[in-house]
Amino acid sequence: MTLPSIVTRSLTKSYGALTALDSFDLSVEQGTIFGLLGPNGAGKTTLIRILTTLMNQSSGSVTIEGLDTLSSGRAIRCMIGVVSQENSLDRYLTARENLELHARLHGMEKRQYKGRIDDLLELMGLAGRQTDFPDTFSGGMQRRLVIARALVHQPRVLFLDEPTTGLDPQSRRAVWEYVRSLAGSMTIFLTTHYLEEAEQLCDRIAIMDHGRLIASGSTQELKDRLSGATVYEIEFAEGEGERYAVLLGAMSCSRNISRLGNKVTVTLEHWECVSEIVTALHGAAIRRISLKERTLEDVFISLTGEKVRE
Amino acid sequence: MLTGTVAIWLRDMLILRRSIYSELVAVVAYPLTIYLAFGIGMQGYIGLVDGAPYSLFIAPGLITMTAVNAAYNESVWSLWFHRRVQFTIESYRVTPISVSEIVIAKILTGFTHGIIKGCAVGLVIFAITPFRFPLEHLLQYLLFLIPGSALFSCAGIISGTVMDKPETIGKVEAVLVMPLIFMSGLFFPLSSYPPSVIPWVRALPTTALFEGARRALVTGELAAFPVLQVSLSALVAFVAAVFIFRRKMAE
Ligand SMILES: Nc1ncnc2c1ncn2[C@@H]1O[C@H](COP(=O)(O)OP(=O)(O)O)[C@@H](O)[C@H]1O
Ligand SMILES: [Mg+2]
Fold it and tell me: Residues of chain A whose C-beta is under 8 A from some C-beta in B?
């Protein structure tokens, strides 16, 4: 039984009249990758800023590795690495100098950080560009440099605030791979508004909106929390779609019919309805029937009643 | 204890070193133009001011002006840039160093810019004029230049901390900093003011700085009071800058 790495209790933060975090309770196990999923304005950055001691909460408490953020800020900052939402790289320093300054701010001596920085630049695929200035880098390279900077002092907890927002799919995958390669060696707390990112990377996921925690669990647990309803996609032969959509819509066990050309998507109350449907469709020209896998997006919509705001 | 301060100050010095020649050319051009236009060009029309040739009268003020302007500008823009544009301050703040270490580093950087650029202008002016000063005059002059640069560096830090928009910074410089420098006896003696105004002008730390620095350099007359006045103002500004920056960061 390991101690939790991050614990928040009734954490609340108000900006004037706006409550950006509302009695937030969270616990993150050591050594796991934890994803905080929420649309823009949900309060993710606010939470990360409090967890990383950049900002004080209005009420409630936070401990990182057992230390309270209000009383042990310095000790906490010694063992966390932070990748903020904005890149915060120093464009007047080369890539390597950016890392060196960070090492010195962590009180490291040159003999301690030299090899470490070599390794990190290698790991992040930046060794060949280490004497260049970061404003000549692509978005993905800048992001990797920020991650390298956050790792220089070998943190025990790594915070990443929307690490791949604004990156092209290829760079995004590269960042995922680097993050995955760190798994197990430290606790990783990341925020994202990409469902796929949370699903791909995280052991556990919390969903938040309007400053409140809505649900948390593993991807599978969250999907299991959806109602027993199942969704089928049925593709009919040319010109048949509309007729059968009407037929299916009239059946008692079907809910939520939608049609796109010859493809009809139907949500069934429970799986026992399948045989009823098969009977009803007897003799129809069906090209394909498929069961639609539930996604985190479905979970999100069912929990918040709306799509993820990009 | 001040490892953070040293690390950030060294970073700033590295950047300064990389652009030192272009910076010096830019910073020397302005006071040199004024010196040539007023000190040399207008000299014949102005004659002696307070017993000194006009070119000699304005030389110390031009050096002081360059130093304090450089200190102020470096501090205000650097703080604004690192806080609002590059977010580097935030990247410093997630390391173990304290907020005070950050602001002290930035104050030191502004101060260093002031001293280096002031000295550069001084050297150029001395190179093109026949005036020579005894060493002790120069040392006494430094007694003003050092707290003066510190004062303006701290003032710049305060402005760069409280102002979020670059337009505001430009406006404050135009309506507050420049008039304050020009009204402090840089181009004319205080006796030109109406007698009722003089005590008010004298109360300004900038007057103590410009007047005192000129006397120290030209006549070698060291007045303890203006030195104290400038030093004390610098100290108050330092405490205020650290306090205001810390409060801003706690928001
Ligand atoms: N400094 C601030 N002052 C006032 N309101 C803020 C501030 N920072 C964030 N907010 C507001 O708090 C809410 C949460 O913001 P944020 O934590 O940045 O969300 P996210 O990172 O999930 O997009 C938003 O409504 C935002 O407008
Ligand atoms: Mg955010």
Answer: 52-56, 74-75, 77-78, 80, 82, 84, 86-93, 97, 101-102, 104-107, 149
Does residue A136 or residue A267 have the better pLDDT? A136
Predicted TM-score (pTM) of this structure: 0.87
Which residue from B116, B153, B146 is spatially nearest to B231, judged by alpha carbons?
A: B146
Helix axes B99-128, B135-162, angle to 10 degrees: 140
Domains and CATH numbers, chain A: 6-219 (3.40.50.300), 230-293 (3.30.70.940)
pLDDT-derived band at B18, boundaries 50, 70, 90: very high
**Cβ-count burial of A110 within 10 angstroms (0-12 exposed, 13-18 middle, 19+ buried)?**
exposed
Amino acid at A7: V
Amino acid at B201: V
Can you point out the beta strands (E) in chain A?
4-15, 18-29, 33-37, 59-64, 67-68, 80-83, 157-161, 187-192, 204-209, 212-217, 230-236, 254-260, 263-268, 286-291
Domain count, chain B: 1
CA-nearest residue, atom 9 of ligand 1: A46
CA A186/CA A25 separation, integer angstroms:
21
Between CA B154 and CA A155 the distance in angstroms is 34
Q: How many CB atoms lie within 10 A of CB A23?
A: 15
Rg (CA), chain B: 19
